[in-house]
Amino acid sequence: MSTPHGGVLPSKQEKAIAAKARKEARRAFRKKLELESKDTIANLDLPANTVIDLEASKSNANRPLPAPPQNLHSDSNTTICLFYQYKEPAWTSKNHKAALNKVTELALTHQVTGRGRCAPEGLNCTLTASANDIRAFCYALRQWDPMFNETDFKLEDGISNKNRFRTFTLRKVGELVGYTLDGIKAPSINRHSGKHLEATEYHKQMQQKDTVIIDVRNAYESDIGHFQPPEGGATLLDPQMRTSSDFPKWLASNETKEKLKNKTVMMYCTGGIRCERATALLNQITDAEEGFKTKDVVMVRGGIERYLKTFKEGGFWKGKNYLFDKRMEQAPPEKSQDALKNDVESNCCFCKNPCAEYRGQHKCAKIIPSSGLPCSVPVIVCNECQKPATDEPEKLSCPLCVKGYQTPETAPDLIGQKRKLGLIVNGGVDLVTGQRVVREQQRVSQRLFVGKLPLTITASKLRHAFGDAKIEKIQWIVDHETKSFYGSAFCQMASVKDATKAYSFGSIQLSQKKKERKHKARVAYAPIRGNEIWPLISNVELEYPPIGS
Predict the structure, then answer these.
(1) Where do the Rhodanese domain residues begin and end (predicted)?
(2) Can you list the domains of the chain with their CATH numbers?
């Protein structure tokens, strides 16, 4: 029989032969995957009967998402989705706003709840919905912007409905992770991001000598669970961060560099987003600095989340994985309760008994000497101590404050490094963000400009906010016509060292009381220009800013 175009339709026998050939091709492909899986497992040198799921280690990037499971129980019909996607060059202000609106629209359309952060540099979300709705949302993102084809959507089906978020919230932020690497300070992920290793490859690398593994999460997350490389393998380093903003300073310290020099550096975090920036930062530093090199910089694809789904009994993981959703923690799914109990290394900060759960939203009340502000790091309080901890919160102290740990003070010169590496080009344009760098603002000066101050600020409060970075003189900046203060000041620091320390903060926290709205002031160098004389002899520092005429 002929086709409308003159061709000849295949006979039944030819169709059967073709169908058989396709079936055999699929069978051969599956057999090939099985052989590759057996080879991979054999090369891992695992103990007998180790439970491993190689399919769970694979990224969903540029692949169809796994099909929803069949016959989910009505009480466990929630799917949790974790994902992030960096955008480089960054979205413009107009496109950033459009992205916020589009993602929110898609979430409402597909009945998705959860929370996310949307910055010019990309998107980071933890979401919940039914298995079908969450997949429809992910495919809609891919259809809206092809860059989401590169996204690894980490899905967990069959979660109890009590863990579903009630609403959808997407925050407009300047940075996806609080490294204080937003804007022109951001290292290039396209150029400097570390290599992604599958969970099985990462597991094998932990067994190698001349290797260090860095937990780039906050210290309170590490307290309840972390990788424990085998004896004779990688050396675990904990940066002991209260917040992610401590990481660049820790990484830039000579002590840290000495530990990383000529080593293979492994990094890990919950889902991978922090490692993207952290590995890029390290690679930028080693690329820009003479005499400081590493063998390699790698991260685990999909983070701890994928590793624990691959190594169902834990592999080299010890304890629980801290989560930022209603589940609170993630444990290896097939690790026994006795084994989990033996893994506990953390204690209730009130009674000091072993405990590895964060409940009650308790925080450290100690004052950090360098800033004069409360530490506010989450602390562990066991069930028996919930009431006394609530009644006497001033007694709560995190492990870092107990041992008096202080974060290194000096931040790396990231903008100078980017200039050296050609990431800031013609006219001072940053290739990562598209922003223009104002060269003069980066010149170190003993005088600082402090902006976005509240009108209720006083000289005493401002000095307190700068901690041990000493201010010599404060001049409130006023409107030329009304002579009234509008939220800015010049601060003459006691020394260049004090100015550098204050400038490294990027911004300073002014509100201290829990009920007060958090207010951050912006800090920048303000070099003396030309024949300018400052401070003027006639200038008298006032405790309160002028209110004008």
Answers:
(1) 207-312
(2) 75-172 (3.30.70.100), 183-352 (3.40.250.10), 438-525 (3.30.70.330)
